[in-house]
Amino acid sequence: MAFLEIERAFKGFGPKWNRTEVLADINLEVEKGEFVAIVGFSGAGKTTLINLLSGLVTPDKGVAKFDGKPITGPGSERGVVFQNYSLLPWLTVTENIALAVGQTFPQWSGEQRRAQVAKFIALVNLTPAAGKLPRELSGGMRQRVAVARALAVEPKVLLLDEPLSALDALTRANLQDEITRIKREDDTTIVLITNDPDEAILLADRVIPLTAGPNATLGMSIPITIPRPRDRRTIADHADFKRIRLELVEYLLKSAHSRKTVLDRKLVLPDIEPEDLLLPWSQRNRRTPIRRNEIKTAEVEVEK
Amino acid sequence: MSAYCELSQLGKTYPSPNGPAVIVQDFNLKIAKGEFVCLIGHSGCGKSTVLSMLAGLSEISEGGIILDGKELTGPGPDRGVVFQSPSLLPWLTAFENVMLGINQVFYTASKDERRQIAEYYLTVVGLGDAMHKRPAELSQGMRQRVGIARAFALKPRMLLLDEPFGMLDALTRYELQQVLLTLWRKERITALMVTHDVDESLFLSDRIVCMTDGPAATIGDIVPVNFPRPRERKAIMEHPDYAPLRSRLIQFLEVGAHERVPYVAPPPRMSPAAAF
Question: What is the mean pLDDT of residues A265-277?
Fold first, then answer.
């Protein structure tokens, strides 16, 4: 029995007459201490998938289980980092995190809670900004607050919903290192959702492609055998990296290709040439467009 | 090689309080008809300046550009531009956005024919069932598809692409590179594309022009890319020439671009026929 699992889950939205089946037949097993990345197109249903795990969405059919028990709602044993940070704008960094800690550990003393909050702010290197409001922070710093908040409640699983896709390349790289470090030090179970194959391969133990929606489903999982620590700059030259990346991208592109609808209407491309709008009006005397078969070309060879 | 588009001694300077600021200098390039050329370099080196001079959106300070035998003086529908952000009119549907240009250059054609052109290109780029949606209802990748359809629909003499996939996520980027290449193969429109993605330029182009760092940027190297077409990503990445070409480009971007040694064209090889 896996630590975190989804069994034959289906999820759709909308009323019967206008229904979109987002996820179809999702099966996922994540072992304790494993880092799994799920890669898919934007709009494929990645967020719906992670919401099944966090308990924010319940499947229409099938079941999501954590530690053997069905997931019925959100819980502090599963920490979530959202793409849009979701911090409370009127609370400072410390207060945002303290709120989560207080909810999760009501039996703790004030001293214990303060220590916990300070520890996790330090973990994401935000101690100098601890008293600031979210709007006074950059996007990368806000996302670090969200990571600290998710970790401070000491979850058994960390669910990352495209946490880095809104950030610039440099901040992204820093936070990727941060995630790798947290994983190495605490051996947390992590599920990362991303649309960047390179990021997935750099960070995870296993990548699983999510096919293009609607009716998105998980493809075959690909184990990443590249040894850790992995270096962002040299990993691209690793033979396994190239193979895995190609396999992953080919699979996803193929799934996107097969989703394309076949049209029953006939397409016609008229065989005409555009008019030259740079000609003065006096030289534009055509009333019908030039057909391509009217164009005559002649090749002349010139002796030099 | 007869040049279809010729950029000669092209330069761009802006006036500044400390005398004129030279952005691009001595830029010489000949592009053959039906060729796909990529322009790579660091951000801010002047790649887009060259492209916008070619598009007629930026004034030429020195030298000149000849396209299909005529010197360029300003913007025109004979050059289709795809921008980094698709620049669609938000109150028009995808179809209406494309029709805007078509109505201009195909004004002698019948209404039906104009509609057919727009429908054809929108369908080919994969928007067959979304062409009557407004930009706000489309994803970033779909908007860029409209941008590509709009540029091709005008049957331009030349296609100018300014980092068209820079704002897209990796997967959508791969998908759209394929869309662009498929359409380009059908029409064989001469194309110049600005990018800083080495893999993208290797996948798409016939020749890669590397620009040195600014100020006074110019051509530092020209790398021919001879992978057979039609191209498939997998086959290209496994091609024996792929790794050496890629490292040559990366080497240039890491070292060569800063050294700013102007490119000197190798002497033309004599063809066997000319030897007699």
Answer: 83
- Which DSSP helix (H) or strand (E) runs through B22? strand B21-32
Which of A273, A253, A267, A212 has its CA nearest to residue B124? A267
Does A277 sit within 8 Å of B77, measured CB to CB?
A: yes
Cα(B105)–Cα(B69) distance, integer angstroms: 20
Interface membership of B166 toward A (CB under 8 Å): no
Position B273 scores a pLDDT of 52
Say how far apart CA A198 and CA A201 lie, in whole Å.
Answer: 5
Residue of A nearest to B78 (CA): A276
Burial profile B220-239: b = 16 or more Cβ within 10 angstroms, e = fewer:
bbebebebeeebebeebbee
Exposure string for A179-196, b = 16+ CB within 10 A, e = fewer: bbebbeeeebbbbbbbbb
Contact A129, A60 (CB under 8 A): no
Nearest C-alpha of chain A: how many angstroms from B175?
7
Share of chain B above pLDDT 90, in %: 53
What residues in A contact B237, CB-CB < 8 Å? Answer: 242, 246
Pick A261's closest partner by Cβ from B77, B129, B234: B129
> Quick one: tokens of B57?
């959106």
- Sign of torsion, CA B241 B242 B248 B251? negative
Both tokens assigned to B42: 């660091």
How far is it, in rounded angstroms, from Cα B237 to Cα B226? Answer: 13
Contact A274 B123 (CB under 8 A): no
**What single-letter DSSP state applies at residue A89?**
T
3-state secondary structure of A48: helix
Instruction: State mean pLDDT over B3-26.
Output: 90
Integer Cα distance of B112 and B114 in angstroms: 5
> Mind telling me how many Å the CA of B223 is from chain A's nearest CA?
21
Neighbours of A259 (CB within 10 A): 15
Q: Do B76 and A269 touch (CB under 8 A)?
A: no
**Residue B171 sits at the chain A interface (C-beta within 8 Å):** yes
pLDDT on residue B60: 93
Residue A108 pLDDT level (bands cut at 50, 70, 90): very high
pLDDT bracket for residue B276 (50, 70, 90): very low
Q: What value does the mean pLDDT of chain B take?
A: 88
The whole-number pLDDT of residue B275 equals 45
- What count of Cα atoms within 13 Å lies in the side-chain half-sphere of residue B100? 16
Residues A226, A232: Cα–Cα separation, whole Å = 12
Q: Which of A71-75, B41-45, B151-155 has the lowest mean pLDDT?
A: B41-45
CA-nearest of A68, A50, A67, A132 to A97 is A132
Q: What is the pLDDT of residues A184-232, one digit of tens each?
A: 887 889 999 998 888 999 999 999 999 887 888 898 899 998 888 888 8
Q: What is the pTM of this model?
A: 0.77
